[in-house]
Design goal:
With 250 residues, this protein is an alpha/beta fold. Helices cover 39% and strands 15% of the residues.
Length: 250
């Protein structure tokens, strides 16, 4: 999960934890890495009512962004660490005897230099889901068109012919363009609401250490007139969780 401390990414981490799915999350700063790790130390309940056994590895992208090889190494190490947690006997095996590891899914809101290493780190039948291009969104209010043009021209491309032999897929979506599918999207939203209510029920029924499966709101603006301030905050790249602007004053 790229941007694991963002609004969508952080909720995705919580959902994975609820279903006992191991996660590697990347974040954009050491502070976000520590916050996510501390958050995961708190006990949580799984969908079956038992304590969640999900494991989380957090990668600070700034600390591993020197080269493509550095990014690939960080992802590979996270896979090994997750595998060894569930298979401790494999930790003593020589690297040549390790099983081939890979991600089942990549949840990508960044694109940019982490796209290809993440795609290559997937196992056969893996799915790379693209929902944004945060790497091309400049911080602040000014746009460096030269830098943006370079990122666009050097963006990763995928060959469908090679995807067949690798048995991997890439899919992308943007809810902005799904206005004509409101009913269908509404059904998905109701499924999420039902999941939240189920998690709340398990929490209130006495499951120790459980937490409500709710999106994390990191920044709340009570006045709609503060929308420009909220956008500036969102563009700063320092936000954690969702940025919410109330419409009650409209």
């Amino acid at each position: 999960i790229h941007s694991g401390a963002g609004g969508t990414g952080l909720w995705c981490v919580h959902i994975c934890r609820y279903f006992n799915v191991d996660v590697t999350a990347t974040v954009g700063s050491a502070d976000k890495k520590k916050l996510l790790e501390d958050m995961f130390q708190e006990p949580s309940v799984a969908a079956d009512g038992s304590p969640s056994t999900s494991r989380l590895i957090v990668i600070d992208r700034l600390a591993h962004d020197r080269s493509d090889a550095d990014r690939r190494k960080a992802l590979a190490q996270s896979l090994c660490e997750l595998h060894h947690h569930h298979n401790p006997a494999h930790a003593s095996l020589p690297e040549s005897e390790h099983p081939k590891l890979g991600f089942d899914y990549v949840f990508d809101s960044l694109l940019g230099p982490w796209f290809q290493p993440s795609f290559d780190a997937m196992r056969a039948q893996g799915r790379h889901i693209v929902l944004g291009a945060g790497s091309m969104t400049p911080p602040g209010s000014k746009v460096n068109w030269l830098s943006l043009g370079y990122k666009y021209c050097t963006r990763s491309t995928i060959d469908p012919l090679s995807m067949m032999s690798e048995n991997k897929s890439v899919m992308a979506f943007n809810l902005i363009w799904l206005f004509e599918n409101v009913d269908e999207v509404g059904e998905y939203l109701q499924d999420l609401v039902a999941m939240i209510q189920s998690a709340k029920g398990k929490s209130s029924s006495g499951s120790s250490g459980s937490t409500a499966l709710l999106p994390t709101v990191g920044h709340l603006y009570d006045d709609f007139a503060q929308l420009p301030d909220a956008l500036k905050k969102f563009q700063s790249g320092t936000t954690i969780g969702k940025v919410v602007v109330s419409t009650r004053t409209v």
